[in-house]
Amino acid sequence: MSAEDKRLESLKAVLRANLDIVRERVDKALEKSNDPGRKVTIVAVSKRQSVEKIRILSEVGHMDFGESYVQEAEEKMHNLKDLKLRMHFIGALQTNKARFVAGKYTLVHSVGSVKLARYLHKKAQGLEKVQPVLIQVNLAGEEQKAGVTLQGLTDLATEICNLRSLRLQGLMIMPPFSDDPEKSRPYFAGLRRCRNQLEKDLGLVLPDLSMGMSNDYAVAVEEGANLVRVGTTLFGPRTAI
Ligand SMILES: *Cc1c(COP(=O)(O)O)cnc(C)c1O
After folding, report:
1. What is the DSSP letter of 225?
2. Separation of 199 CA from ligand 1 center, angstroms?
3. 68 CA: nearest ligand 1 atom
4. How far is the CA of 212 from the centre of ligand 1 (A)?
5. Which of 27, 71, 106, 157 has its CA 20 to 30 A from that of 99?
6. What are the pLDDT digits (tens) for 28-50?
7. Does the C-beta of 230 come closer than 6 Å to ligand 1?
């Protein structure tokens, strides 16, 4: 075996082991949750991670990846277009970049305004596509954070339901950062209650709750997440921009 083959083999072993650890913790958390039979998708957050690592994870059967930066994601998706990956857009999105995203992702997790929703709709419509989306909710009301506040949630959901080229599938949250995962729990439980209330109020079915990152995904699954967004725990540290 060449040195290069050895390097690739050991990288593959590391990534597979990391994925197995996350999957096991997800399964344990599922058992503790109210709905242990549901499917939880691990979105491997590959922003500022190499195309090589994405390829290797896909070789062990992992197909869901999350990207945050439009330009970086464009280049990677071009490089990886031979693979049938399910790409998730999870980052902050400016309206002037909506055209790079609409109609191109399995799921956009980060719709936080009526303005962005309308742009995405227009661009998806132009491509004759329907773009599945989640609403990002800023439950803590943090000023610098993306996402719609609780007060604006019903209006935004109503608006999206009227945009025929978007399909609203659920909610996403990024709680205030803390080293202690238990600090995230009230936000995760809160998002689940928001989802349940919206379903009742608007007569919708919203299956998706995207919550939990490397430090708190187990708590998120206990509280009802069916999509967790895990980056550094899977891939190791990100490279600088
Ligand atoms: C970067 C990012 C993640 C992953 O963060 P890790 O701590 O590396 O797991 C998850 N969600 C969003 C929205 C992100 O931007």
Report:
1. -
2. 27
3. 15
4. 8
5. 157
6. 999 999 999 999 999 999 999 99
7. yes
pLDDT higher than threshold 90 for residue 209:
yes
Single pTM value for the model? 0.97
User: How far apart are the CA of 91 and the centre of ligand 1, in A?
Assistant: 9
Q: Is 6 exposed, middle or buried (0-12, 13-18, 19+ CB in 10 A)?
A: exposed
Task: Please give the number of the atom of ligand 1 that sits closest to the Cα of 230.
Answer: 9
Cα of 215 vs centre of ligand 1, distance in Å, is 10
Residue 129 tokens read as 């596509």
Backbone angles phi, psi at 227, to 5 degrees: -135, 125
Question: Token pair of 209, please?
Answer: 């709750």
Q: Quick one: 34 exposed, middle or buried, by C-beta within 10 A (0-12, 13-18, 19+)?
A: exposed
Q: Which of 184, 93, 192 is nearest to 147 (CA)?
A: 93
